[in-house]
Write a structure and sequence with these properties.
3 domains; alpha/beta; ROK family protein; Nucleotidyltransferase, domain 5; five-stranded mixed beta sheet; WH-like_DNA-bd_sf; 11 helices; Arc Repressor Mutant, subunit A; ATPase_NBD; single chain
Length: 370
């Protein structure tokens, strides 16, 4: 293990286990106490982490507890998808500092940069550590390119390079499902879970896959693109064709509903059947992911107005029917439906996740310079 990776490992363990003592970090990391102390002292000296108080023990001295300092920096999260285009700023714990709505639909990288510049002027002199960009489409996180987004009409767009050149800040990009998965990890929704599926639902359907606390993107960054998977009923339809909010509202256009929650009010037999079929397909797709990856938990995230009780009941029933039953420990399905800014906060979580590595590297470089 190289020296820079030690600081990164310790900081990630602090984020994961907070509040945590140095002795707990030693036990979890397998490193010596002196190595752990040196890394935590570097992070404390820079203000990246902070002391959170003492934990009393039955014998010996109380243990000082450590955690990430949420006020060390702010991050910007940008949501670009079929639901809405939104910019938010949060602290390192995901607490909202500010937000700005953008026009929905297509916009150019230049228009995005203009909107971001306008937003940053409203936030005063707050220190911004990184920008996270979560969008609907195929992205190359390593190169910083949006390979293809039909919502934005972008093809092979070097959006990260363009934003970094304009704002002189680290910029990171992911598809919206992967960003949500990373955010659930760094902001604490995953708790102590090591493996999780975080599926996102709306006009598109996708899933971020966390394996042993690491995002699994797949060979070409398309792991979890379950919305593009074909159904097994011989119809030639994809999961999004049958179960997305767009597909449901199109099938029930005569109701005049603009969001799925409205369908729960005096549903007709046709409405019940459309929601039943969509929930059946979506629940079985999530169950198949659970069978393939054996996660600690599966989350399904959607904006509140898309949370049809009828649909979610059917998803739950289908998931429970098809999930693996080889062991007594059945994978739970949980819903995240509380926020209208969930994907923007996911982008902020992406920024925090990547910023952890930047801060660790800087702390290690400072030590080597001294």
């Amino acid at each position: 293990m190289t020296a820079p990776s030690i600081t990164t490992r310790i900081l990630r363990l602090i984020v994961e286990l907070s509040p945590v003592s140095q002795s707990d970090l030693k036990a979890r990391s397998g490193l010596s106490m002196s190595t752990v102390s040196q890394a935590t002292n570097r992070l404390l000296d820079r203000g990246i982490i902070q002391e959170l108080g003492l934990r009393r023990v039955s014998m010996g001295r109380p243990k000082t507890l450590l955690g990430l300092n949420p006020d060390y920096a702010n991050v910007v999260g940008i949501q670009l998808n079929a639901e809405r285009n939104l910019i938010v700023m949060t602290d390192l714990a995901g607490n909202l500092v500010g937000e700005q709505q953008m026009p929905s639909g297509e916009l150019t990288p230049r228009q995005l940069g203009d909107a971001l510049a306008k937003f940053l002027k409203t936030t005063g002199d707050r220190h911004v550590g990184a920008i996270g960009l979560a969008l609907s489409g195929l992205v190359d996180a390593q190169s910083g390119y949006c390979v293809r987004s039909t919502v934005l009409n972008w093809d092979n767009e070097p959006v990260v390079e363009q934003l970094q050149a304009r704002f002189h800040l680290p910029v990171f990009i992911e598809n919206d499902a992967n960003a949500m998965a990373l955010a659930a990890q760094v902001f604490g929704q995953l708790g102590q879970s090591r493996t999780a599926i975080v599926a996102t639902y709306g006009k598109g359907i996708g899933a971020g896959i966390i394996l042993d606390r690491q995002l699994y993107p797949g060979r070409h960054g398309t792991a979890g693109e379950i919305g593009n998977a074909f159904l097994t009923d011989g119809s030639g339809r994809t999961l999004e064709d049958a179960a997305s909010s767009k597909a449901i509202l199109r099938a029930l256009a005569e109701t005049g509903a603009t969001h799925l929650a409205a369908l729960d009010e005096r549903p007709s037999p046709q409405t019940l059947e459309v929601l039943r079929e969509a929930g059946e397909h979506l629940g079985s797709a999530l169950a198949n992911l659970a069978v393939a990856f054996d996660p600690d938990v599966v989350y399904l995230a959607m904006e509140p107005q898309m949370a049809s009780r009828i649909l979610l009941d059917q998803v739950t029933q289908s998931f429970h029917t098809y999930r693996l039953k080889l062991t007594p420990q059945l994978t739970p399905l949980q819903f995240l439906t509380e926020s209208n800014r969930m994907w923007a906060l996911g982008a902020a979580g992406l920024a925090v996740d990547r910023l952890i590595d930047v801060l660790s590297t800087d702390a290690e470089a400072e030590r080597n310079d001294n």
